[in-house]
Design brief:
67% helix, elongated, mainly alpha
Length: 72
């Protein structure tokens, strides 16, 4: 697969991914009291953001024809 995540998109994913995952873990472990399912969803979304930012490939970007990587 070609890289399709770069620039500000990549930076946002690498910053927001871990933040969402940490907030989700806080919810799951009842540090912040709210819905546990919401916490689980935040962990999953955060992990997806982190991985897609790290490998610079996003399947949804490919499906939509979006390419924010300047090297391609």
């Amino acid at each position: 697969m070609e890289r399709n995540v770069g620039g500000m998109d990549r930076t946002a994913r690498l910053v927001l991914g871990p933040l969402l995952a940490l907030v989700g873990l806080a919810v799951v472990f009842d540090v912040v009291s709210t819905n546990v399912y919401l916490g689980g969803a935040l962990v999953v979304v955060g992990a997806i953001f982190l991985v897609t930012g790290a490998v610079q490939q996003c399947p949804i970007n490919s499906l939509l024809g979006v390419n924010t990587c300047p090297r391609n």
